[in-house]
Amino acid sequence: MNRPSLVEAMQKEEFYPHHPAEVRMVQTHISWVFLADELVYKVKKPVNYGFLDFSTLEKRLFYCREEVRLNSRLSKEIYLGVVPLILEQDRWRLGKEEEIEEAKEYAVLMKRIPDDRLLNNLISENDVPSNAMETIARTVAEFHSKAERSQEIAAFGMPEAFKVNTDENFAQTEEFVGTSISKEAFELIKEKTNAFYEKKGYLMEKRAKEGKVVDCHGDLHSQHICLWEHKVIIFDCIEFNQRFRYGDVASEVAFLAMDLQFLMQDRLSKEFVEHYIRFSGDREIEEILPFYLCYRAYVRGKVESFRINDPHTPFSERMNALLRAQRYFFLAEEYAKRML
């Protein structure tokens, strides 16, 4: 299969039956996303990062279906299904549902969300509604209260299980020491993280046993939150790895709180945490939050670092990714200093 020809085909207006006026492609380290007027088609890249494996067609179909199923929890009206992509006589076309077995690739079909209503864009335009953090906190707290819980899920929040995540982070970022993260910051964050397990691991264990570890969204940041038509729409959850989705609700709260601080919105970050605590009644979050803030910032630094070496990403974007990675790692270092 000639994958570049699929990407090229999906950038043309005539590829789509609804005849969009314009098609724009955006890519991440794991997906090609085609914005075709009011519809969005997301194709998973055939990559394997260890923590994520889209390397086979079967796996990409499975995770496309998982993406639709899991995102229906918070944005059911946005996720429309999985579309087969058919290759016939060296030409690609969109298939029908009954052609799923004949497909050579798949796309998740979504309703397009207005960019100007995304939280990160509202922030950049200084147009965040006064009650936004309260509304978002209530939505997240209610989602967590209803989220799936089980002994299997709780196990992912135990210190020995979560340490797999942080150990993996450090192993996968060693190659970026001296590029996106300094040797001093790398060693400090690693030291503080491992010390946290020894001194505060009992708190992680306690929360896991008390049902504070649930099937979360897993990727809760401002680009995945839309304030639209008097609703909070939270989309694009993590479907590719249960280990990153099953976690302490404090880790989910920390992600958005960290992201808001990355955007230099300390007031909004503080408001979100305070409102979440009020709606959830989980005051204990404050004690464990620095650990998860550090973890979330480090993960974002890692993800941006991966883009530096992505041959599919233009050079200018890779340089911007480097700058973002450096900033995330700086935040992680600052959080690490407050961890204990």
Instruction: Please report the distance between the alpha carbons of the first and last residues.
Output: 52 Å
Mean pLDDT: 95
What is the C-alpha radius of gyration, as a whole number of Å? 20 Å
- Counting DSSP H or I runs of 4 or more residues, the number of helices is 12
Alpha-beta classification: alpha+beta
Walkthrough of the structure:
The chain is of the alpha+beta class and 340 residues long. The protein has two domains: 110 residues, no CATH class; 219 residues, Aminoglycoside 3'-phosphotransferase, Chain: A, domain 2. Helices cover 51% and strands 15% of the residues. The protein is built from twelve helices and ten strands. Strands 1-2-3-6-4-5 form a six-stranded antiparallel β-sheet, sandwiched between helices. Strands 7-10 form a two-stranded antiparallel sheet. A two-stranded antiparallel ribbon has the order 8-9. A hairpin with a 2-residue loop joins strand 8 and strand 9. Helix 7 packs across helix 11, helix 7 crosses helix 12 and helix 11 packs antiparallel against helix 12. The longest helix is centred in the middle third of the chain and has 27 residues. The N and C termini lie far apart (52 Å).
Protein traits:
Aminoglycoside 3'-phosphotransferase, Chain: A, domain 2; alpha+beta; 12 helices; single chain; 340 residues; two-stranded antiparallel ribbon; 2 domains
Outline the fold blueprint.
Elements: H1 3-9, E1 23-27, E2 31-36, E3 39-44, H2 57-75, E4 79-88, E5 91-94, E6 105-111, H3 119-124, H4 132-146, H5 151-155, H6 159-173, H7 183-209, E7 213-215, E8 225-228, E9 231-234, H8 242-245, E10 246-248, H9 249-262, H10 266-280, H11 285-308, H12 315-337
Antiparallel strand pairs: 1-2, 2-3, 3-6, 4-5, 4-6, 7-10, 8-9
Helix pairs in contact: 4-10, 6-7, 6-11, 7-11, 7-12, 9-10, 9-11, 11-12
